[in-house]
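Write out this protein's structure.
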Amino acid sequence: METRILAGNLIWDKEGQILLETVTENRYVLVLPQIITLTETEEKVASDELTEQHSGLNVIARCFVYE
């Protein structure tokens, strides 16, 4: 397992875990805690401040990648 910085949309799974979904519809678990960049505004948001209100926003974040 490694980590990579990826861009995609924030989503929450049924257990409330924050995931990043890429344009190819791959889903990755976010590395927590971290500072996430919202791509539209370039605003920085701490991962512990995210709520489901942020669902669907395009972000840049570090994620776990299982190969």
